[in-house]
Specification:
- The protein contains eight helices and seven strands.
- It is an alpha/beta fold and 219 residues long.
- The protein has a five-stranded mixed sheet with strand order 2-1-5-7-6.
- Strand 6 and strand 7 form a beta hairpin.
């Protein structure tokens, strides 16, 4: 008897995408995604959130612990910091579309009921989830994409992407056959991981400065 391969062995979300229906249909379909093994341990799929006509799309790496529990992106500490930075930069968080390159929480856990520690997704896992992000871009059609961290950049711009080389600059790159404007910056969680208050404040100011470039591009 030939063993049947599980859907996640193919490492692509493509078979799970609906043919039509906009963001609501995408969100419903993503909840059933088995395109890679990450769905096995995650509590739920965490799809993007926001207006389908949003002018700016913010793309992070993956959901965190709180996002996984609540089923919404950027609702944990990093999300609250991002909202504050956006407001300070002159971008209304309520008018942005926020999502992640990977829709399931990847983590390590020493033992049950212990804290779940974020673990970076592999390039293969990010690539498997790529069709969801491509579909979100096709529906929302944002004027500007803000890349929050290296993982988001690698998914959209290739594995050689480095945040430090381009952060804070207004870029134009071809993504899925269309030229789009982008601004790259650090992920807000990196600000929270700063060693002390002084480093944290400097990292936060750098994030705000990058977001101000995005705000000017939208003005």
């Amino acid at each position: 008897m030939v063993a049947t391969k599980a859907p996640e062995d193919a490492y692509t979300a493509e078979p799970f995408l609906p043919e039509r229906g906009g963001l609501p249909a995408l969100r419903r379909a993503a909840a059933e995604c088995r395109g890679c093994p990450l769905h096995r341990d995650a509590t739920r799929t965490v799809f993007g959130a926001g207006d389908s006509d949003a002018r700016v799309m913010l793309v992070g790496e993956q959901p965190g612990d709180q996002e996984d529990r609540q089923g919404k992106p950027f609702v944990g500490p990093a999300g609250r910091l991002l909202d504050r930075a956006l407001e300070e930069a002159g971008i209304d968080p309520g008018e942005a579309y926020v999502t992640n390159a990977v829709k399931h929480f990847k983590y390590t856990q020493a033992e049950p009921r212990k804290r779940r520690i974020h673990k970076a997704p592999t390039l293969r896992e990010m690539t498997a989830c790529g069709p969801w992000l491509a579909a979100e871009l096709a529906v929302v059609e944002p004027e500007l994409i803000v890349l929050l961290g290296a993982s988001a950049g690698k998914v959209l711009l290739g594995s050689s992407f480095r945040v430090g080389e381009v952060r804070g600059a207004l870029l134009e790159r071809e993504i899925h056959g269309r030229t789009r404007q982008l601004v790259a910056t650090v992920h807000p969680s990196s600000v929270l991981r700063a060693r002390d208050d002084a480093d944290r404040e400097a990292a936060y100011e750098g994030l705000v400065a990058d977001l101000k470039v995005a705000a000017r591009a939208l003005s």
